[in-house]
Write a structure and sequence with these properties.
There is one protein chain. This protein has 495 residues and is α+β, with helices and mostly antiparallel strands. The protein is 35% helix and 15% strand. The protein is built from 13 helices and 13 strands. The chain has helices at 21-29, 33-54, 64-74, 111-126, 163-175, 206-222, 278-292, 321-330, 334-347, 354-367, 391-402, 411-414, 476-492; strands at residues 58-59, 62-63, 134-141, 147-151, 182-187, 193-197, 227-233, 296-297, 302-303, 311-317, 439-446, 449-457, 463-471. Helix 5 (163-175) packs across helix 10 (354-367) and helix 9 packs across helix 10 (354-367). The longest helix has 22 residues, at 33-54.
Length: 495
């Protein structure tokens, strides 16, 4: 069984628009704690600035009175002393802090006691029979990088869709968050043959094809051309298009050219009937748009590469890679995840197929000095049971994405579903759940496999990265509830 993403009645990521974390928090409590803290801090700075300005006048960045007093203090030694400078007024007493500094530990309990409490809580929850025959866990303080908890941390497990975290980190590391995937129309020197060249954008839609058609029509009309032959090129990708899972509503054939992820309905997430020929569908749609604009196609589009002497006449760029990673994680989008793995392979000079993606993703994560023992990235989506990762690796990936020096990886965190609000966690936490709005995590579900990996801010104000993996489970709903309880315990354990 693949990730149980429900068909939405309202598309949650239409045109890649997503709820913000602030919006989610406001939905729960009005002003959130961080908004109150930030507002108070800004007010305090404004009052302080007013007091400083009132103490002027200023000269080259220093108050004149302050400079004069300092100069007087420096005039010592020698036989002829000038009159002593007047004693300066005592400095005004500082007011006590209204708010503790950001990041200040609120809970003053001894670290050893807190660690023991964490171990006791997680050990008990991990003992649940709902988590099957094998269960592993890791919790990391992302600020210090310290592992706060580990059980079977180095045991390689089937991760299901949580492997998308690794895929996203590798793609962002290799290409950067601003990278866009191009779909291009190339024309022969006489403009009589057009080739629609797919670059691997799975989110290409009819509106984007319409823009490509409009640009192409302008170029043709300038030369008086009103009839063309149309080809389509999918050669950027190689290897088998079919995922080893076979024809499935959770993924289309992997192609460098596809329309709406090969979906045959109007959804943009979750399971859907899929086309067996997504590239051909995109080419035929493009031909229809050309015909509608008065440019006839002499026959049905044919598969083929653009001639060496051809030149681009129109180009469409996908949303930035950052947005694609976020969408892949929020909706557990298998088509985007497989495209990310192949884009990583292309960046590494590997063939854009399943094996090339495996090698490229592994190489990128190795550069980040992550624990890769036992890891295997058989695909980018997690549908393949041959995928293997450890809880230590998944939590480590999230900790890397939180590092201040790696802002390019931040979409991996911002794309995680918000408990009770977005994506695959929208229905797993109720309005009264203590973890609602506070937990962000990627889910993973295959038959007998349930996983959860994400982040949470604990009662001490620390951002924790966690990974919980279970196999041999017999009830998906009971396993998910047990995983959710583990994540929630990190929020409330010291309150």
């Amino acid at each position: 069984m693949a990730e149980p993403v429900k068909r939405p009645s309202i598309n949650p990521l239409n045109a890649l628009r997503r709820p913000t974390v602030a919006g989610c928090l406001n939905k729960v409590n009005g002003w959130s704690n961080w908004q109150f803290t930030a507002g108070s801090a800004v007010l305090g700075l404004a009052l302080a600035a007013g007091a400083v300005l009132a103490a002027g006048p200023w000269d080259s960045g220093q108050r004149k009175a302050e400079r004069q007093w300092t100069a007087a203090r420096d005039r010592t030694g020698g036989a002829h002393h000038e009159p002593a400078a007047p004693v300066p007024p005592a400095p005004a007493p500082s007011a006590p802090a209204v708010l503790a500094a950001l990041g200040t530990r609120v809970d003053q309990a001894a670290p050893d006691a807190a660690a023991a409490a964490l171990r006791t809580t997680l050990d008990k929850l991990l003992d649940s029979s709902a988590l099957g025959t094998v269960r592993t866990a890791v919790v990391i303080d992302t600020t210090t990088g310290k592992r706060l908890y580990g059980k079977g941390a180095d045991t390689a497990m089937t991760p299901a869709s949580t492997v998308k975290i690794a895929t996203g980190v590798a793609a962002l590391s290799a290409l950067g968050p601003d990278h866009r995937i191009a779909t291009t129309v190339r024309a022969s020197p006489d403009l009589r043959t057009l080739t629609l060249v797919g670059g691997g954008d799975p989110t290409l839609d009819k509106a984007a094809l319409g823009e490509l058609a409009a640009g192409t029509v302008r170029a043709l009309r300038d030369r008086g051309v009103d009839s063309v032959r149309l080809r389509y090129d999918t050669s950027w990708y190689s290897g088998p298009a079919r995922h080893p899972i076979g024809p499935n509503e959770n993924i289309a054939p992997v192609s460098a050219l596809m329309l709406d992820e090969g979906r045959l309905d109007r959804t943009d997430s979750g399971p859907a009937p899929r086309s067996g020929d997504p590239a051909g569908d995109a080419a035929r749609t493009f031909a229809g748009l050309l015909n509608d604009a008065g440019i006839g196609t002499r026959s049905a589009p044919a598969r083929g590469r653009a001639a060496a002497a051809s030149r681009p006449v129109a180009t469409h760029l996908s949303a930035p890679l950052s947005a694609l990673v976020e969408r892949a994680l929020t909706n557990s989008d298998n088509d985007i995840a497989e495209a990310l793995a192949r884009q990583t392979a292309l960046a590494a000079g590997e063939p854009a197929d399943f094996d090339g993606g495996r090698r490229a993703v592994t190489a990128q994560l190795k550069k980040l000095h992550l624990p890769l023992a036992g890891a295997n990235f058989a695909d980018g989506s997690g549908l393949n049971r041959k995928d293997k990762v450890t809880a230590g690796l998944l939590a480590g990936l999230l900790a890397r994405a939180a590092e201040p020096g790696r802002p390019e990886l931040r979409p991996v965190l911002t794309g995680l579903p918000v408990a009770g609000f977005t994506g695959t966690l929208s229905n797993r936490y109720t309005s009264t759940s203590r973890g609602t709005g506070l937990i962000r995590a990627k889910t993973g579900t295959l038959t007998g496999v349930n996983t959860l990996a994400g982040t949470v801010v604990d009662a001490q104000g620390r951002l924790l990265a966690f990974a919980f993996l279970a196999s041999g489970t017999t009830s998906p709903s009971e396993a998910q509830s047990a995983l959710d309880a583990l994540a929630t315990s990190l929020v409330v354990r010291t309150r």
